[in-house]
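okkk here we go again. third time trying to get the zinc ion bound version out, last two times i messed up the smiles copy paste (missing a bracket lol). double checked this time i swear
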Amino acid sequence: MEYLKGIRFPDGYFCRKCNHKEYWINKRGILVCKSCRDELSLTAGTIFHRSKLSLVIIFRALWWMVAQKNGVSAVGLQRVLGIGSYRTAWTWLHKFRRLMVFPGRGRLTGNVEVDETFVGGKKSGKRGRGAEGKALVVIAVEILEKGSGRVRLSIVPDASHESLVKFISDNIEKGSVVITDGWNGYSGLSAKGYSHKIEEMTKLLEDEEILPNVHRIASLLKRWLLGTHQNYIGEPYLSYYLDEYTFRFNRRKSKSRGLLFQRLIEQGVMHEPVDYKLIRSM
Ligand SMILES: [Zn+2]
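finally!!
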């Protein structure tokens, strides 16, 4: 509670009604203003509201999720923290995933490779038509002098011009160089303010060999979904796993896990309450 209080009131408590700076804490853990008696619950209206788990266990769960290189499955979390119910562990991991897109994050810049891939299911899909039981995911990756920079991933309904251009304008800064294959869904990017570079497949280069950065991300993503979560994740949940993957990948070089933990708690304080029913009803 002290930790949450520090995050909600970085400059110290003040009453939301009368601005008074002194309070006491009652038996239910509620902050009561000494001047006007206004009662404030630190978890009300946040993602930590009315949980079956204590805050200490929730913080441990989040720490575990952040500290493990590949994250954790609900079964794994349940075992590590001795959480009684699988459903509770599953629900909390889903709550955490909802905190992983920070507001105001910048669009990708520079040289950016873009391509789509099918995720899930067993049969391979045909481009532009979709495939049963699979989701079409667009991937954008910044190319740095050495390796890949940041990524963005998103489910799109199809590989049409409309869907792909919307993804690109949402996620890539105008003026950037967008590198794609020759698929006509990507035509007309120059008119949208991008410099468009097309890598053509030739007899020497198979599909997998052009756009190497984006293909590497696609295979890492699929390996992560199978490895950590060990089952097929389809819509509607897949987009939240993509958010988690993006969060992990873009911060893979971050040296301060503690800071990431704190940023996620801050996000949780700003996020409205979410419960099992709401997550399941998606
Ligand atoms: Zn007051």
